[in-house]
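Record 1 of the preview.
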Amino acid sequence: MNDVEELKQYIGVHAKGQDIPDLEGLLARIRTDTAGPGSWAGEWTAAGDRWAERGRHLEASRHYIMARFPYVDGAARQEAYEKSLDAFERWSADQDLHRFDVDVDGRKVGCWQSGLSEGGSRPLVVVTGGFLTVKEQWAPTLQVFRRLGLAAVATEMPGVGENEVPYDAGSWRYLSAVIDAVAGQADTSRTCAVALSFSGHQALRCAMVDPRITGVITVGAPVHDFFTDMAWQKGLPRITVDTLAHLSGGELADMADRALSPSSLDVLEAQVGYVASLRDEVIPQADPRLLQEHVRHLHLLEHDDVHGSPGHVRETQLWLTRTLLRMQGVQGAGSLLVGLMWTMARARSRLAAR
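->
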């Protein structure tokens, strides 16, 4: 059973990113992590049901997704997850979003796309959330990327949602399989991976051998010391340790071979955009420092915040988009607008800090 107070602490950045209203009121009603009224899955699901009754299927899906957080561990979260998929599909019927699956060695990887077309020449962006988030949280943004001139795909990291690939030392190869699947529908030779948290680690690893990945943009991704520093690991939040154990079927101590070596980062050709939190309790500061020392093409944004920078959600979103457009060479009014919005958000943040 999860620690409810810890769930409340770490849901904040995800809820802000999903524009969840009255978060404090909803969390105040949650007392347990069992089932039914007053429970984590029960209250989030009930809120989703109320949105669904009003025909607001995107909002319903977002609440059901929060109900499954941090991962499906029983009937209540499984029901919530299934409801989230149904509600999102209902909403997507009126959108320029299209579902497709990729086969990776006999295992399904579910995806959403916008902007793909036969013979398409748009640069490709692949969006993946971290080990706590599903593709339906990010899929609505694909339409924004399409309007900005990109072909966009949203999927999940191995072991999460509808990605059936096991999360192990070699599972990063699924990303190349997704790119293979859309070849001919976008310019995959210019692929940028917006891969958050632990999927960012996998995107970096994949970019070392797949030259089609010309950019990796991530927030709070582990790189090296997270996997090797046993003293640091002893202080990790329970939600991190438990979720990794759920995905991998093993212990964190068994993941040391996933650390990206300085020598491999030295020869990385892809551009890297990294958002670091200076008070991060999950990712050690040694990891973004390692990127600074060894990655030739690094764009670094630092926030004086805890993991995920929940106090800088809007600022981070705009920086990610601005960095993506710059990496892909996208110009025009939309790109200029994003740059202006980022500058204003950054200025507001600095004023608030003062």
